[in-house]
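lol ok so funny story. i was supposed to be doing the assay writeup but got distracted and ended up predicting the structure for this chain instead. priorities right. anyway since i did it might as well share w the group, maybe its usefull for someone
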Amino acid sequence: MTRRPHPAALVAVVAVGVLAVSGFWVLAPLRDLAIARSAEPPAAVARSEAPPSPAAEPAADPDTGPVPYARNDTVYDISALPVIDVRSVNPAMPVDDDPMGPVTSSLARPLGAGAPVFADPTGQPVGQLPRDHHYGGTTVPVVEAQVDWVKVLLPGRQGVPPEGNGGQTVGWLRAADVELTTTAQYVEVHLQANTIDVVSAAGRERVSDQFAWGKPSTPTPTGRTFIMWTTVVPEFRYTEGHPMVYLGVQSPVMAGFDGGDVAVTAFHYYRTREGDTSFGCIYLDGPAVDRLAQLPPGTPVMIKP
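and the output, tada:
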């Protein structure tokens, strides 16, 4: 990145990522969730303003796995909750504790105006994810699914570097608050191998085997993330008219970029595309970034070292 961003555009700073292949493409959670929801009788929505009864932390069982979190039918006024978006800094939001872990092929998007976001399904909501937002980030990948809850990757930061942790955030949404769809593909990036693939049931499509990534002082973040927003920014002349493909993760070391208050990772075109030379973004040739720009919002991305 070498130019000051247009006020209406996000500042791209870090690179795009990849999803873990091992155990990644798991259709079962979405399928099981749909079966469970169709089998249970409709429940009346509790209209109480009182907080739900606390539920015990699910305990791992070697045979059956974690005990599902208890259902929460409390009605929340989401307008009173802080918005979770690319610019938000919310200390209550957890940073992903398993960045190289799998995700499912399920995507979640809030119903209605938005959905309350929980750091922990046994607690109270700490924010709200809107259904629509100018900068995207509202269709998000599911990394864990239960009958009544889904754990998802989210935009925004827990803290601002260098003092705070700017890594990929996660949160829980109630299954009743979201619509669930499936995605047929994900992006896998290997920084040292210098490869980017679009992976689907049909196999691997090599998108690039020559790109630049973050230098040691401004590294490209690694781990699981997702495509947040894709747009063309004519003011970024270095892109030569190609799209910016912004991700949900931001720089681990930069508070902002070029005068902005965000340091968002992106795939984008740049004339120099070799080695660890960027501020964190992944610099690609035109055909590669144009191909990635075809992927829909929420598409999972895994960045491996």
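DSSP finds two helices and 18 strands in the chain. The first strand starts at residue 12 and ends at 14.
back to the writeup now i swear
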